Task: structure prediction
Amino acid sequence: MAKIIERRKAVSRFGTMPGSGSIEHCSMSSDVLGENKDFSVYLPAGYEDSDKRYPVLYMLHPAGGTHEIWISMGVLPQIADDAIRSGMAMPMIIVMPDASGIGDYHLGKNMGFFSVPGHDYEAYFHKELIPLIDATYRTISDKKHRAIAGPSMGGEAAIAYAQKYPDFYSAACSLSGILGHPEQSKMASYDKDYAESLIKNNPSAFVENATPDQVEKLKSVRWYADCGDSDYFIEGNTEFFLAMKKQGISIDYRMRSGVHAWYYWITGLAPILTFLSTGFAD
Result:
C-alpha cells in the first residue's frame, strides 16, 4: 500500500504575513510505479490550528516542470494566499504532483500525466495518490470538493482526467492546454511514448466522439479553459470550445492577450481559484 515516507515544511523566500498558508514537500512510495514519487502540498492559513476539512485542487505542471515549479515559477502560495485573504477564493488544499521525465530538463522517459508502457501513471494518480492525500490531509473527499487544473501538458491532463474519470472531479481547468488536433504533432520531439499518450488522450477528439451517456457524465463537471490569443495552442483550444458547445456542454472559455508563458499562467491562476470556489461552495 502506498505511503508517505517524508513530509517537510518548506521555508518561504517571502516574508510571512498574517493569513499565509504553508507548503509541505513530500515523498511517497508507489507500488504501482515501483518507485518513490514526490509531490508538494499547499495548506491554507488556519489548517494546523483547526479540525476543519477543506476542498482540494490538484494542480498539475507543464512539460519540463516538477512538483515544485508552481512554487518557484508560479508563486502559487502567494496567489492563493491573496485570493483567500481577499475573499475571492475559499480556503483549499492544493496538491502539486510530479510527472517529470528522466533526463535533462525533466523532459525524458516517463514524462507526463498519462500512462505509457511500463509506467502506469494514471493508476498511480487515481488509485494511490488521491486516496493517500485523502487519508493524510483533512480533505473533503468527495467529487464536489475535488478539482483538477494545469497549464500546457498539465492542462491537457486536467481536462482528459476529468473526461475519463468524471466521478472523481467536480471541475477541470486548463491554462494554454494541448486540447486539440492541430497541436498533437508538435509535441513528438521529446519522447515517442509521450507523444503517443498526448494523441491518445486528445480532449477535443474525446468530446467529438463521445456517446450520449458520456456527454451526460461530462455535463456533471464544470469546465474552464483559458488560452492566449498568440499562444501556439490556440487552434486546439478553439476547437475544444466549439466541440463542447456542439455537444451542449457548458464551458467557461477565456482568451486573453498573451503567449505560452508563465506570466500568462500566473495571471490566470487567481480567476481559476475563484471559479473553483464558486463550485465548492454551492
